[in-house]
Amino acid sequence: MLYTNSERTIIFLIIAILLTIILVGFIILIVYKYQQRQNIYFQNLEKLQISHEFDLLKSRLEIQEQTFQNISREIHDNIGQKLTLAKLHLNTLVLCGTTHEVQRVNDAVTMIGEAINDLSDLSRSMSSEIILSNGLIKGLEFEINQLNKTGLYNLKLLVVGEPVFLDTNAELILFRITQEALNNIMKHAGANSIIINLLYEHCNLTLTITDNGRGFLTDKHQFGNGLINMEKRATMLNGKFELHSKEGEGTSIKITIPIYEPEKKV
Amino acid sequence: MMFFFPRTEFADLILLHMELYKIIYYITYDLSMLLAFVCTVISLRLINKRGIVNYMRGFYWYGLIGVFVYIPHILATHFQYHFEFAIFLNNLSVLFHFSFLSVLIIRAIHKDSMKKYLRLLFLFFIVAIIYYLSKDAFVQDSISFTISNFGLVIFCCFYYYDLFTHIPVLILKNEPSFWIVTGIFLSMSIQIPFRSIIANLQNTISISDYILFADIMNIAYCLLYIFFIKACLCCIQIRKEP
Would you put residue A88 in left (φ > 0), alpha (ψ -120 to 50) or beta? Predict the structure, then answer.
């Protein structure tokens, strides 16, 4: 069929317009698909980075834990033994000097005894044995007793809910976070009252450490290594780390971790 | 087939349309020349600038050499001045246009294995273009233009394929190669059917259709230069970033 000029013109124009629309559609599709692919790629990259960071942190924690174990064993088996032996030697001395000299030897025996006790406490605190055999609550009780003994602090442990045994690593990480927090309080907060709260819920465990110290401005960019480590450790447990502090109003650290497959504590 | 206009008014309408097409032709032609000039000026800003991607180095040559073709072409279009010489230059320019842009696309592609095949394809198209140009260089040769457009569209498709097989780290809106290739792809794809019609049915199509095709191709060139300008601006922006 022959077309007139006008008809042909319109047909050509329609072809041109349709072609342009199809081509533009094709370009839009390419951009959209590429964007989609890019998003997936960056998501995977991010996951990989997080996983790498976790592995790195895990290795660091393992090394740290191993070092703690070594020091703890060294204190217990070597230094502790030597001091005990020294104390034994002093105790078995037949003293025939003046009263003053006898008194000095007795003082030395007492001091060695105290050193043995302190070292023993330090060794137990560094060792993960207490967590492995008795669980988190006993570990925290031991830590609290240690600090209460100094007479400088009034520490309380509150356990709410029905306690469950967590994975040993998780309990150890929480224990180390608490130690780090207590260490920070002793070094910087100037607090005299510390409350450690363990809240066991259906699927979460919340650990809160609150002090009545001087507090500080919570600028995340100025977090010290201690706080950053605590946050990273909490992240390792898929947990959430929160810090609330105001100048003059104390500090509160809250860590919430999910509890998977809980075992009832016997 | 329905009629769009009453048959009795055809003769007047054709004349009227032809006048209209001519006006549109001059407008689109001048606009494309203006955009080509702007593109050349902007591309000159890339001379000796640091931090420019490799394939964009020397991009200003496209505009600069284009000027030597445009000026006689403009003179011939508006004043019929040395018409044959302008057509001869225009015919020759297709060789430069094709080789310059296809080499740029090949350089922008990441995969070396793909580049190898594209070089062979490039040689094939160059030979084909030279063959058709050599027939009569002083007559407007639509076949060589069609081959050039077709070749460039194929190169663009390879670029898009490479884009999807390479790690997707490019930010397309800031990627000069993407803008250049998209400009070429759109412009050449729009031109291909009309260039093919001119090449194959040169004696059967009417003058009005011929002018209409020229209008469409001018618009396609406008699109090409707009995308080239955007690509140059991307390069300048990237360079400005610390």
Answer: alpha
Number of domains in chain B: 1
For residue B186, give the nearest of A15, A27, A31 by CB distance: A27
Q: Has residue B130 been placed in a domain?
A: no
Q: Do B164 and A33 touch (CB under 8 A)?
A: yes
Choose between A139 and A219: higher pLDDT: A139
Contact A206, A256 (CB under 8 A): yes
Q: What is the pLDDT of residues A89-112, one digit of tens each?
A: 888 877 776 778 888 888 888 899
Separation CA B197–CA B205 (nearest Å):
8
**CB-nearest partner of B209 from A12, A27, A33:** A12
CA distance to partner chain A, nearest, from residue B163 (Å): 8
How sure is the predictor about B240, in pLDDT bands with cuts at 50, 70 and 90?
A: low
Checking if the pLDDT of B14 tops 60, the result is no
Query: Does B153 map to a domain?
Result: no
Q: Which two tokens stand for residue B117?
A: 């095949």
User: Distance (Å, rounded) from C-alpha B55 to C-alpha A155?
Assistant: 69
| B110 part of a folded domain | no
3-state secondary structure chain A: CCCCHHHHHHHHHHHHHHHHHHHHHHHHHHHHHHHHHHHHHHHHHHHHHHHHHHHHHHHHHHHHHHHHHHHHHHHHHHHHHHHHHHHHHHHCCCCCCCHHHHHHHHHHHHHHHHHHHHHHHHHHHHCCHHHHHHCHHHHHHHHHHHHHHHCCCEEEEEEECCCEECCHHHHHHHHHHHHHHHHHHHHHHCCCEEEEEEEECCCEEEEEEEECCCCCCCCHHHCCHHHHHHHHHHHHCCCEEEEEECCCCCEEEEEEEECCCCEECC
Residue whose tokens read 């947990």: A239
> What are B156's two structure tokens?
């663009």
Provide the token pair at B180.
């250049």
Q: Which chain B positions have a beta carbon within 8 Å of A35's beta carbon?
A: 172
Q: Is residue B120 part of a domain?
A: no
CATH top class, domain A136-266? alpha beta
Angle at A120 between CA A119 and CA A125, to 5 degrees: 95
Interface test with A, best of B165, B189, B201, B222 (most A CBs within 10 A): B189
